[in-house]
Amino acid sequence: MTSIPKEPFPGKSRKEDHYLRILRQMETLGKLGHWEFDFITQTIHWSEGIFVILEMDPVEMPISLELGYNYVHPDDREKAKQHMEDVFKKGIPYNLECRLVTKNGTVRTIHSQAELVRDDSGKPIQIVGIFQDITDRTESYIQLKQQELRLSSILQSEPECVKVVSPDGILIEMNPAGLNMIEAEIPEDAIGKKVEALIEPSDLRFYRSLHENALKGIKSSARFRIIGMKGTHRWMESTAVPLTNQKGEITSVLSLTRDISEKVINEEKLIRIKRNQEALINGTSDLIWSIDTNFCLVAANQSFLDVLSFLQQYPAKEGDSVLVKTAGEEFYYKWKEYYERGLSGESFTSFENFISPITHEEEHREVSFNPIRNVDEKITGLACFSKDISSLMRKSKELILNEKRFRVLVENGADVIMILNPRGQGKYVSPSITKVMGYTEKEALSLNLFDVVHPDDSPRLKKRLFDVLALPLGGSLASETFRAKHKDGSWRYVESTLTNMLSDESIGGIVDNFHDVTEKETQLEAIKTQNKKLKSIAWTQSHVVRSPLARIMGLTQLIRTGSLTKEEEDKSLGYLIDSANELDDVIGEIVRKSQEVIPPEFNSKT
C-alpha cells in the first residue's frame, strides 16, 4: 500500500497545504475518501483516503468509470451500476452501500453518498461524493445479527417461560414455552394483555411484589399460581430482573418462569409424609433419638424427650447432653459406654431390665445403637432406638411355663405322640414311648412304623397313611386299633389317631397319637368267649333239655288217663324215671358249663 507523503504538497500554498493535511487526517481517522466523476472527460478522481481503502498507488489516477466498477464486488457490481443510472435518470440522491475488492483481494464494505452537479441548463456535468469504509461496523452488525439469531433460537427453544412485561404490566413478548404454559393458541391471544389476568387472585400480591421489585432495579423471585386460558391451574416460580435502555432507564421487566406444579405436589406429599412420620414416631411408646459425637441430643421423639426431661428434672430440648448423672453413677457410666461403643463404629443391641422411675413397673427394653456416617464415611453421630418388649417378655414367660406344663403332660401321659413322614418314618416321638412300648426315643426314631406293626395289620396301616394325606390341614382319621411289637417282643394292641399337619411349618408331618389298649382288647376277647359259651348253654337248654322233658310230660299225661294196664303203667313209670334221670344229667352239664364261663388268663406272648 502506497504511503501518504508527509512533506508539504508540492505546488500548494502554505494555507492550502494546511487544509489538505487536515483533510487527509480526517479521512484517515474516519476511514473516509472523497471522489468525483467528470461527465465530460468520463474519468474518476479519488482522494488519498480512497487509495488507502483500496490498497492502491495514487499514480494510477485518473481512471475510467468502467475501471472503477471493476473494484466493486462482482455480486454488487450490477447494483452499483443500476444505482448510478437511477441517479441520472430519476434524480434520486446517490446513497449506496456495497462491497469493494481491494487490489490485494481484501473485501471491504463501503457506504457512499454523492451530489450531482449541473450546469446552468440543468445538464449533469459532475458528481461529487464521499465513501466510508464501514467494514468493521458491518462485521459487528453481522455478528450482532448472528448473536441475535442465536439468542432468538435459544429463547424459542427454552423449555421455561421467558417473557418481557411493560412497567404497567402489559405482556410485550413471550417465548413458545410460555405461551404453551398459559394455554395461548397464538401469540396474539396474550401479547398486549395484562399479565395479572392470568394470576390466581389470592396470589396477586406475590406477583405484584416481584414486578415492583424489578422496576426498582431489584432482582427477586416468587411463587404463585396461574390459571391458564383453558382453565388449567399451575404453580409457577418466577425470577424477574429489570431491562434498561442506553440511558440506564428501566423500560421493562424480564422474567424467567418455570412450571413447578409437580415439585409443589411432591413437596406437599413429603410434608404429609413427614407429618405422618412425626405422628407415628411421637405416638409410640418406643424411644427414638440421635446424638452427635459430643453426646448432645440432635433429634428425638416425644417419648424420649419425656424420659430425658424426667431424668434431668427440666424440659429436654435439642442440644442437651444425654448423659444424665441424676439417675446414679452406674446408670451414667453404663450408658456412656454404650454411646462410646456406637460412636466408635460398632452397631449393637442391648437388653435392659429395670423398674421404670415414671410408671414404677418392671420394663424390658431392646435398645439398638447404629453409627451415623457422612458421605466421607466419617462418623458424625449415633442413631438410637429403644423398643418396649415388656409385653413380649411376659408372653415369653407364659409360653415357657406352658411349654413346661405341656412337656410334663407329654412325658407322663399315657398317650404317645409321634410325628411321621408320609412313609411312616418318625421325625419326633414323645418321651412316653418308653413307658408304653419300652423303646427309648432314639430307638423309636430309628425304626419305621412298619418295622413294629403286625404283618397282618400292615396293609391297613399303609392305606391309612395314604388316606390321611387327602385330608385338609388339621383333618384327622377316625381311631383304629393295630397290633404293635413291644421292645420285650410281646404284641400290644394300640389305638391310633392320624392327623394331617404336613403343611404346618412348625410341625411338617403326620401326627400319630396312640395309646395302649391291650387290656381293653383282652376284656373284649373274654367277653366274646363268654358269649360263645352262653350261646352253647342256650342251645343245650333249647334242644337237649326239651327232649327228656317232653317225654316226661307225655308219659305223665298218659298215666293220668287211667287207660293203661298195670303192666303198661309200670313200664311207663320206668320210662318216666329214665327221662327224669336224663334231665338231671342235662341240668348237671349246664351247671358245669356255666361255671366254666370265666375270662381265661390272657397270655401276652401268644
Automatic annotation (TrEMBL):
**Which segments constitute the PAC domain?**
94-146, 220-272
The UniProt keyword set, sorted, is:
Kinase, Phosphoprotein, Transferase
Q: Which residues form the PAS domain?
A: 402-472
Which EC numbers does the record give? 2.7.13.3
Catalytic function, reaction form: ATP + protein L-histidine = ADP + protein N-phospho-L-histidine
InterPro entries in alphabetical order:
HisK_dim/P_dom, HisK_dim/P_sf, PAC, PAS, PAS-assoc_C, PAS-like_dom_sf, PAS_4, PAS_fold_3
Pfam families hit by this protein: PAS_3 (PF08447), PAS_4 (PF08448)
Q: Which SMART domains match?
A: PAC, PAS
Record's keyword annotation contains Phosphoprotein: yes
PANTHER family linked to this entry: PAC DOMAIN-CONTAINING PROTEIN, PHYTOCHROME-LIKE PROTEIN CPH1
Which NCBIfam families does its entry note?
sensory_box
What is the protein name given in its UniProt record? Answer: histidine kinase
